[in-house]
Amino acid sequence: MQNRPRIGFAVLCLAVLSLSGVRAADPPAADAAKVYRLVAPTVDGTQPPQRVLVIITPEGYAWVTTPEALHGSVERRVPGGATLQWVPQDTARDGDPLRTEQQLDALRKLCAARKIKFVHIPAG
């Protein structure tokens, strides 16, 4: 029963992304030398405001994930040798899914273990 709100939320997120023009299809073969972006957009119309994590491939394909599933998504979607850029929108918001140094360190360690270059581009 607890999974139903998450499923509904994931469907809502996919609908928002599809309406915004972000492609969410199977991408062509990944090029490990390219840059993947990790962003956390706010989902409009949710109260309280909620965020999802989105991994965007160099070709523009997007994979929506949750903070709890982020590590598995990075393992499956970002090839070794690639660069993963974390681009937070606003570091002052409490809803940012990677707001603590422990969360960032865990992601850095995962990337290092998988030979993925992690780049944090702080919000300005």
Fold blueprint:
Layout: H1 3-19, E1 35-39, E2 42-43, E3 50-51, E4 53-56, E5 62-65, H2 70-77, E6 83-86, H3 101-113, E7 117-120
Parallel strand pairs: 1-6, 6-7
Antiparallel strand pairs: 1-4, 2-3, 4-5
Query: How much of the sequence is in beta strands?
Result: 15-25%
Total number of strands? 7
Number of domains: 1
What class do helices, strands and sheet pairing give? alpha/beta
Radius of gyration: 14 Å
What is the CATH class name? Alpha Beta
Task: Give the CATH architecture.
Answer: 2-Layer Sandwich
H/E topology pattern: HEEEEEHEHE
Report the major sheet: 5 strands, mixed
Helix content: 25-40%
> Overall 3D geometry?
globular
Strand order of the biggest β-sheet: 5-4-1-6-7
User: Would you give the CATH topology?
Assistant: Nucleotidyltransferase, domain 5
Low-confidence stretches: 18-28
End-to-end separation in angstroms reads 40 Å
Q: Could you tell me the mean pLDDT? A: 77
Continuous helix count: 3
